[in-house]
Amino acid sequence: MTVVSVxxxxxxxxxxxxxxxxxxxxxxxxxxxxxGPNGAGKTTTVEVLEGFRRRDSGQVRVLxxxxxxxxxxxxxxxxIGVVLQELAVExxxxxxxxLARNAGYYPRPREVDEVLGLVGLEDRADRRIKSLSGGxxxxxxxxxxxxxxxxxxxxxxxxxxxxxxxxxxAWDVVRALTGGGTTVILTTHYMDEAEALADRVAVISSGxxxxxxPPATLGGRDAGEVRIRFQVPAGxxxxxxxxxxxxxxxxxxxxxxxxxIEVLAAVTSWGVSDVVExxxxxxxxxxxxDVYLRLTGHAATxxxxxxx
Amino acid sequence: MNPSPASRSxxxxxDVRLVARQLYFEQLNFWLxxxxxxxxxxxxxxxxxxxxxxxxxxxxxVIGNVRVIQYYVPGFVDYGVMSTCFNAMxxxxxxxxxxxxxxxxxxxxxxxxxxxxxxFTNAVIISVLQVVLLLVIGKAGYHVSLPHxxxxxxxxxxxxxxxxxxxxxxxxxxIPNQEAAGPMxxxxxxxxxxxxxxxxxxxxxxxxxxxxxxxxIRHMITAVFxxxxxxxxxxxxxWHDIAVMALWGAAGVAVALRRWSxxxxxxxxxxxxxxxxxxxxxx
Lengths: 308, 283
Hints:
The complex is a heterodimer.
Chain A: E1 2-13, E2 16-27, E3 31-35, H1 42-50, E4 57-62, H2 73-77, E5 80-83, H3 95-103, H4 112-118, H5 134-146, E6 152-156, H6 164-179, E7 183-188, H7 191-197, E8 200-205, E9 208-213, E10 226-231, E11 244-247, E12 252-257, H8 260-273, E13 279-284, H9 288-295
Helix pairs in contact in A: 3-4
Chain B: H1 13-31, H2 34-55, E1 59-60, E2 66-67, H3 69-98, H4 101-106, H5 112-142, H6 150-174, H7 178-196, H8 207-212, H9 216-225, H10 239-259, H11 265-268, H12 272-281
């Protein structure tokens, strides 16, 4: 069952196209990640799907309705949940009060205690929101997004600023929700987040989707070149290997090849027959980050700074 | 095709309950910050007491040679209502917009009208509290005579509260960020209060009164003072002043409808052009 379908979505601010012909579909219970640098059009796309922003052109159906149709906007908003980038809660209310108030907006909300448990704020339930730490406030944000028991949940960079432990916690919440049939649309800068959570990823750059698919096969990373690395004693003479080999004087060897089986067979049989001590053998596929940087045209800038 | 009950924008008793609940949380939010609450409610009372003890006993020919305290009590009733409906409302809306609260509300099923009704009712409750407090203190502490006709008193206050709320909502759309909200609102408010003669009765034929007549605060002051005025022939209903306030309220609604934004201005830029550029760049 299709929960979201987008066909040829365009949105221009002034003369600058923010989203330029984006198309994708999201199925029931799926986690779909929109990955892209700042200004690529992620948030604009999501805001159109939420009914927050009007599109210029294109077909959009979300939960069977057009989110721009104001006659059903209230019923539509009862079925979606949104977690925004900024924390937005009145600081003097307690965690429980804020959740209870927002639960009252929805026809079939989750129990407040269930939400507190899901986001791990049981022991903070009666604290003022202003006394929470940053991470706890973001968890409350997540709680406010799911308290209405949404069929479709939008997460806009949900773990930006989280410490590693808190990120794992947030991921567990998202997994628990999707286990219950909630569909999730996620925008993120983090490759590991997309890889950990998403069933499918769309990489968006300058308003276009440049690649789309499961994170494991995105941009052909399940095929193509791999990087094989190992260490041999310094000064060891290498055998004939059917690939480009670079070896340092200290014995560090790196081989780039798309025929990894042949190369590995040559290397391992050489190690066994010539009794050469081979240590630290690794075979690496392109990481999602490599693929992402290549797709968004930042391959030369290295592995950091892709968010700029 | 008839819209299903779930998609109607007004759902009868369910929505009345929804607004009541929203109002409850607005009140909770107000009183859970007791320092701010006491200062908001107490400011008009403190001002009244200060002015009364310094100048309250003198008499003014402009208001029929009665004690000036007889002018200050309705004056600070106005001050209480205006500071709640205009100052506090404007600043609160800017803060809510800039922190993303309005955006979150927009994405929740709570209808806009329900949010605004709860906000306005909340301001009215806080205003009524101040009005009662000021009348009681005026009567008990300074033997001020209360309005001889409560109908024009109530109508002037209700029209004033609604108009100043509308102007406050409009004002919030003109303020670019949280930091500017307090100073911008205070300057506009206190300059107009001064021109409009809150601190001392103004001769209606003076140049200052004529300038102030273009703005709503002067009209609030004269409309609310009218039912206190016991001079023979002085009308209790100041229809002209009530009408000017209502016009300002209508203008406020028009500006608010045109300029209202659910998104933080900070991330979207100020002007239309900057907004369109930054919305792309600052995604």
